[in-house]
Amino acid sequence: MNLVIKPLTPELNPAYLDFFDNRAFSDNNPMGPCYCNAAIMNSEELDKMVSEFGDDCKGTLRRYAVEQLAEGKIFGYLAFDGDIPVGWCNAGDMKRYPVSRHQAIPDFARENACENTLAIICFAIAPEYRGKGVATALLERVIFDGISQGFTSVEGYVNTNYAGKYWDHTGPARLYEKFGFVEAAKQGEKVAMRKELK
Question: For the chain, which domains are there?
Answer without folding.
Answer: 3-196 (3.40.630.30)
